[in-house]
Write a structure and sequence with these properties.
Layout (H helix, E strand, L loop, with lengths): L5 E5 L2 E3 L5 E5 L6 E9 L5 E9 L6 E2 L7 E2 L8 H4 L2 E2 L16 E8 L14 E8 L6 E7 L2 E7 L8 E5 L9 H8 L3 E6 L13 E2 H12 L9 E6 L1 H12 L3 E7 L10 E3 L2 E3 L4 H11 L9 H4 L14 E6 L7 H14 L5 E6 L16 E3 L6 E3 L4 H22 L8
Parallel strand pairs: 2-10, 13-14, 13-16, 15-18, 16-17, 17-20, 20-21
Antiparallel strand pairs: 1-3, 3-6, 4-5, 4-9, 5-7, 5-8, 9-10, 11-12, 12-14, 18-19, 22-23
């Protein structure tokens, strides 16, 4: 029987934001099987998932149509085995630093019984593997150390010009490459901007100097491979707070996406020339919100919309998309997003859009990384919870990634080169 069973996964090589079709053939009708996915990351950590299926009357299991009856996923979920990959060591996060030089090798195995051992001793009856890349062929990665600004510019293959996007991550040292690599793979000139804890930058974030971010905007907007007319910005967490500030004060920003960010300045002050917006301690903001927010949440009190530490979203000249995972456990981001949208409407600004994902957590990133519920803060070493329900969070990541690309394609000029 084993020799007649086949497992096929197509395409064998793809970007991590592309779907893989998985089909098992040659089984007995109504046969129960175990499907297992696994990979080994650069640190040697094993990530694995498994699900149980029943073949159809023709002896096939097609993950686009066949429901998982148990295991790490349930129901019809074609990419569920990829989404459900979990570390063999609890709370480890997938490590991938060499995103240009090597793909993720995801192995797929089939067992003709219900295999309960996460690391089976018996060999599978069918096996295959797929290569999942974070960067398309020809994407360039260029270190940027110009004036004060530090970061990495990711350019698509070809002469361009390309629409430009600045990517700002949360308040952690160093830079993250997943989103800019994929943005470049999808035709954007993506600049991953670092603002502390990198090379000769300050080791800690004492205040937000908006002139630094304005320098980065000018660098990207005037790059010969970037289209003229302005650039976009996307940020997560603290990066979303900074992205919103950039939209409020820097006119070259033509499209902004804020992912699970706070619309009040929390912690650090913002400085921009003679302007200073004081940052409030986070717990003080939470207490104020709890005291002023209407019980039925049907409207926003004017006291909140005029909060002095709230970023003046009405000053932004371009569209803003606020993206919120409602199961996020680090901040009350839905509240902040509603706060910003209400303030914008009070001042007549109509192009602020709110997109909520009910069961998604904090790390709404592009597809490719398994959900990590628990994290260790690299700055403090303290554990924290990001939140998110596995299947719904993973679906939200795929949907929000498509919406990110559509939003930037819609609002960033894509045809005129810089002179």
């Amino acid at each position: 029987m084993a020799g007649t069973i086949s497992l096929k996964a197509t395409p064998e090589t793809s970007l991590v934001d592309e779907a893989v079709k998985i089909v098992v053939c040659g089984l007995q009708p109504q046969q129960r099987i175990t499907m297992r996915a696994w990979l080994q990351d650069e640190t040697g950590e094993i990530f694995y998932s498994r699900a149980f299926y029943v073949s159809d009357t023709e002896g096939n299991v097609d993950l686009e149509h066949s429901p998982a009856i148990d295991g790490d996923i349930h129901g019809v979920c074609p990419m569920g085995l990829f989404w459900a990959l979990k570390p063999s060591t609890p709370f480890k996060r997938l490590t991938k630093s060499d995103m240009m030089g090597s793909p993720l090798h995801v192995h797929l195995d089939v067992y003709i019984h219900l295999e309960l051992n996460p690391f089976p001793d018996t060999p599978p009856v069918a096996t295959t593997s797929v290569k999942r890349w974070f960067a398309a062929p020809g994407v360039q990665k260029l270190m940027v150390r110009q004036g004060r600004i530090r970061g990495i510019l990711f350019l698509p293959p070809g002469d361009g010009p390309f629409p430009g996007v600045i990517d700002i991550f949360s308040a952690v040292r160093g830079l993250k490459e997943v989103r800019p690599f994929l943005l470049a793979s999808r035709g954007f000139a993506a600049f991953s901007l670092v603002y502390f804890g990198f090379y000769d930058l300050p080791k800690t974030l004492d205040h937000i100097d908006l002139h630094y971010f304005e320098e980065a905007v000018n660098f990207l907007a005037n790059h010969p491979k970037v289209t003229s007319g302005g650039v976009g910005v996307v940020g997560l967490g603290k990066g979303a707070e900074i992205a919103l500030a950039m939209a409020c004060f820097i006119p070259q920003i033509v499209a902004t996406i804020c992912i699970n960010g706070i619309s009040c300045l929390s912690g650090q002050d913002l400085r921009y020339g003679h302007l200073t917006i004081k940052g409030r301690p986070y717990q003080e903001i939470v207490s104020l919100l709890n005291s002023l927010w209407d019980i039925d949440e049907s409207h926003m009190p004017k006291e909140l919309a005029n909060l002095d530490s709230l970023l003046p979203i009405e000053k932004a000249r371009s569209p803003i998309l606020l993206v919120v995972g409602e199961n996020e456990l680090t901040h009350a981001n839905l509240l902040y997003a509603k706060l910003s949208k209400t303030r914008a409407e009070m001042f007549g600004k109509k192009d602020v859009y709110l997109r909520c994902y009910p069961s998604a957590g904090h790390t709404l990133e592009p597809p490719g990384y398994p959900l990590c519920l628990v994290f260790l803060n690299p700055n403090t070493g303290a554990p924290g919870l990001w939140g998110g329900e596995l299947m719904e969070h993973s679906k939200s990541q795929e949907l929000s990634w498509r919406e990110t690309l559509e939003f930037f394609h819609c609002y960033i000029p894509c045809s005129l080169p810089n002179n």
